[in-house]
Specification:
single chain, 101 residues, alpha/beta, Rossmann fold, four-stranded parallel beta sheet, 4 strands, 25% strand, globular, binds NADP nicotinamide-adenine-dinucleotide phosphate
Length: 101
């Protein structure tokens, strides 16, 4: 486990971007987890080796586990409104995946 590595789910979102920037200011390394990791470059550039974008869908337990491997901490900044627009079963499964991870 790296004591300075934090995974931010939804790290490319409005809230997540601010969390990523604040943690980086405090010298943490970040895994920026979202369904479209390519968007991360537009927000954070590609010059910082301590920022790594990874593809995650919170409906997919395996991608969550991979994003958390060796991480010291995690922040969940995935939008409730996005997930809330999905059906109830899908929303429950996503929530349970995050809790299980
Ligand atoms: N915005 C505010 O002012 C504010 C204030 C207080 C609290 N909050 C809360 O903070 C949370 C985030 O809000 P936000 O405004 O930052 O939302 P947002 O801008 O829509 O960002 C959502 C983030 O979640 C990712 N995401 C969405 N669905 C996903 C999925 N199935 N798997 C993995 N990643 C997924 C999005 O990236 P991809 O689409 O690429 O996956 C994006 O990075 C919400 O719960 C909201 O209620 C927001």
């Amino acid at each position: 486990m790296s004591m300075r590595l934090v995974t931010v789910f939804g790290g490319t979102g409005f809230l997540g971007r601010r969390v990523v920037r604040r943690l980086r200011e405090h010298d943490f390394s970040l895994r920026i987890a979202s369904r479209h990791p390519d968007r991360s470059r537009g927000f954070f550039g590609s010059g910082d080796p301590q920022l790594r974008a990874v593809g995650v869908d919170i409906h997919d337990e395996r991608t969550i586990a991979d994003a958390l491997a060796d991480a010291y901490g995690a922040v969940n900044a995935v939008s409730l409104t996005t997930v809330a627009s999905e059906n109830h079963d899908s929303r429950s499964a996503a929530n349970q995946n995050m809790i299980a991870a």
